[in-house]
Design goal:
Layout (H helix, E strand, L loop, with lengths): L2 E6 L6 H7 L4 E2 L6 H8 L6 E6 L5 E14 L9 E16 H6 L7 H4 L5 E4 L1 H10 L8
Parallel strand pairs: 1-3
Antiparallel strand pairs: 1-6, 2-5, 3-4, 4-5
The structure holds a DNA duplex.
Length: 142
DNA sequence: GCCAACGTTGGC
DNA sequence: GCCAACGTTGGC
């Protein structure tokens, strides 16, 4: 079991839109970056992830989980690009902002800070628990 | 809307 | 295989 972080610009695809998809979830398509793709290839069913709003909001707004392994990205004919499906699991009771993350020394090595532009990132277990705690989730999904 | 960071492309 | 040009991302 591993932890991840998915970035999305809310005016393109928001947390609310993912929640509206329900248990079926949604294809995390459109990723055109090898590192992000490789992260998705490494994902397993049930892996948990943060859902982060970039550009607007700049905060972790919810928890999602992987519900389909990496498969071809249906939005392109290029066989190089793959994606997983994810579905919403829980709201962050209190969204954790980028500012909060940057202000917390325990999270100084988080990819969100160090690899700002990577759109699908790995999250370490201690980082996962810390961000969940900051977000008001007493029993973080794991 | 600007611009810095950084990933990708393509000529050589 | 290098590196300049270019495009995109994303914080501010």
């Amino acid at each position: 079991m591993a932890y991840w972080l998915f970035k999305s610009e809310p005016f393109k695809f928001s947390w609310q839109m993912l929640k509206d998809k329900g248990a079926a979830g949604e294809e995390w398509d459109g990723v055109r970056n090898y590192q992000a793709r490789n992260n998705m290839r490494a994902m397993e069913i049930g892996d948990k992830g943060f859902f982060y709003h970039s550009n607007e909001g700049l905060e972790v707004v919810g928890i999602c989980e992987v519900c389909a392994l990496a498969h071809h990205d249906s939005t392109t004919d290029d066989p190089r690009w793959e994606c997983v499906d994810i579905r919403a699991v829980a709201d962050m009771p209190k969204p954790v902002t980028l500012k909060d993350v940057k202000a917390n020394p325990k999270l100084a090595d988080m990819a969100l800070v160090t690899s700002m532009r990577l759109s699908v990132q790995p999250v370490k277990e201690d980082e996962w628990l810390e961000v969940c705690r900051m977000g008001g989730l007493d029993n973080p999904p794991r």
